[in-house]
Amino acid sequence: MAGYFTKLNGHVYEGEYKAGETLANGVFVSIASGEVKKLTAAGDAEFRIDEKTTLWGLPAVRMTCVYEGTKELYLVENEFEDYGDKELDWAAYTVPIGHYVKMRKPESGDQLIISVTAEVLATLTVGDLAKPASGGSIAKKA
Question: I need a labelling partner for 11 at 20 to 30 A (CA). Which of 68, 76, 101, 126 fits?
Fold first, then answer.
């Protein structure tokens, strides 16, 4: 996965927790036992799908947060570390276990782009509402 915020209604990021598992940018997470992990249950925030597109060659959606929800929820948006002599692969960047995670709670009006699987993309239409799903991606709101 890959992703980031494209429009913010503030710039408050959380950065004091470490990854409890390998995390990609653009994945929805929560804090479990003091560690950042992918969602294990669906979130209640809602996002309007604004565009079906690609992000660094991956299927993706641009979306706007229309309801922040009441459950703890963050989107990972880490800074890219120095790859040294290797070419940076934006689509494959991950935060290793034990490293600090830069993440932000989506607020109403925030806009973001995240990669999704081709299967998830096929279920969505522009204008649909989606919710964060177990595993950190999204699913069409039933």
Answer: 126
